[in-house]
Every structure is written in C-alpha cells, then in structure tokens.
Write a structure and sequence with these properties.
With about 160 residues, the chain is of the alpha+beta class. It has four helices and six strands. It binds methionine sulfoxide.
C-alpha cells in the first residue's frame, strides 16, 4: 500500500469522500491494531478536508480518553454523557452539531471550533469502544450526509476495536 493519499482537485465533499474511501479502507485494513488505524484515519481526514480537529476518544472505564488526533491539543478525558462526545457515547447516536454554542454542555477544547460531528464506533460485540470527533472552524459545516460518509469511511476500524 502506498503511504501517500491521492486526492481529487475538486473540493466537492462527496467527490473527496469517494476518492478517499478505497485508500482509507486499505490503510485501515492493514492494522495491526486500533491505535495504528485511528492514527492514519485522523491524518487522512485532516489532510483531505482541512478540518480544525479530527481525532478519536476511546472508552476506558467510565471515561472517554483522548486517542490519536490531528489538530490543537485537546481535553484528555471526557465523562460519560458529557459534551458532544460523551453524549454520542451515552446515547449511541451520531451527533451533528451545527453550532457548538447551542449545544448544552459542549466542551470547548478550542475556542475556534464552531460546529462538529461525532460518530460512535462499535466493537465486534456491538459495544461502543470509541468515538470519532470532527470539529470545524466553520459554523454549520456538517450535515447527516457527512455523518453517513464518515461512518462508511470508518467501517474497517471495527475489526481492531
Ligand atoms: N467538542 C468535544 C470535546 C472534544 S474537543 O472538541 C477535541 C465535546 O464537546 O465533546
């Protein structure tokens, strides 16, 4: 597998997702474990879309703990049900937040984050083992289509969780 991504010149998001999918899936299938796969996934998404922060929080006991990411330094631990990430974990639901200032309890790791999407990631037993957190400096930057595309991109990660 080549270690560099080939990305389209188009910045149309659906086009970039489609170009990224086979390349990211190949990287994620390489393994050999969750941290390696998360590290490459964070780097690939950050490179392809230029979002402010892209990373993972892993379930460790009763908290989410910071995992591989790209972007500014971030909070290390998030309690169950707290913030957008903790809400995604507690509810099992994807969170698409158009304006973080309107989300009660949003954890502002960076004052530049304006909108975000969080995807719960399940292990092979169906339990949530981690979340993907994508933060944008642009208000209203995500729709449910982004959430669907990101879920699809993350699919091979499940085998390592
Ligand atoms: N925004 C998140 C906290 C994590 S940082 O944004 C990286 C939240 O409210 O869950």
């Amino acid at each position: 597998m080549s270690s560099s991504l080939v990305l389209p010149t188009s910045t149309e998001r659906a086009t970039v997702y489609a170009a990224l999918e086979p390349q990211l899936h190949a990287l994620l299938n390489e393994g050999p474990d969750a941290i390696a796969a998360m590290a490459n996934a964070a780097a690939a998404l950050h490179t392809a879309f230029g979002w402010h922060w892209v990373g993972f929080y892993r379930v460790v006991g009763d908290h989410l703990v910071l995992g591989p990411f790209q972007g500014p330094v971030a909070c290390t631990r998030i309690a169950h049900g707290k913030g957008v990430c903790g809400t995604a974990w507690a509810s099992g639901q994807v969170q698409v937040v158009p304006d973080v200032d309107q989300f009660p309890g949003h954890i502002a790791c960076s004052s530049l984050s304006r909108s975000e999407v969080v995807i719960p990631l399940h292990d092979q037993q169906g339990c949530i083992a981690a979340v993907l957190d994508v933060d944008s400096a642009v208000l209203n930057d995500f729709t449910p289509r982004d959430a669907e595309a990101l879920q699809r991109l993350m699919r091979p990660l499940q085998q390592w969780l």
